[in-house]
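Record Trichome birefringence-like C-terminal domain-containing protein, 173 aa.
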Amino acid sequence: MVIRRGSFEDTNVTYEDVEEQLGYEIALRTWSDWLDIHINRTKTRVFFMSLSPYHKKAEDWGMSTDKTCYNETQPILKEGYSGSGSDGRMMRAAEAIIQGLAARGLKVQILNITQLSEYRKDAHPTIYKSHWVPPTKEQLSNPDSYADCMHWCLPGVPDVWNQILYAYILHYT
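=>
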């Protein structure tokens, strides 16, 4: 994925065709700089939620290459599973920025929902969602072609993310 245009809060620089990883790192640095200047370290707690994975490639969990999360009814049970819908470089970039903030006296609590959510290939709306444009006959004949394997069903996985945040707020003050 390439970011086509963006200033990332720096009015003196305009980026064109920025690779996704670099764009993410620039955005994290912008966020970090803003926190460093604007956050009252004695009164404010900062949380960072990691990226949400998607389950578009069923071969990640042993299915054929033409399948997606459509019709999945069980989570992935293999401990430590990591699919192609997650990029470890992104998490390492976030961790490095957060460590830099800690060195400057600003503690940020990381809520790593990426690995937790990796297991839930069964928790996407797939074809059972509202569509702006109704699926075509071709799509209807092949549900894998339009299954939504990026968003999450509600109630479900995002509720667990909120419960984890709530637990941190209540018990780690």
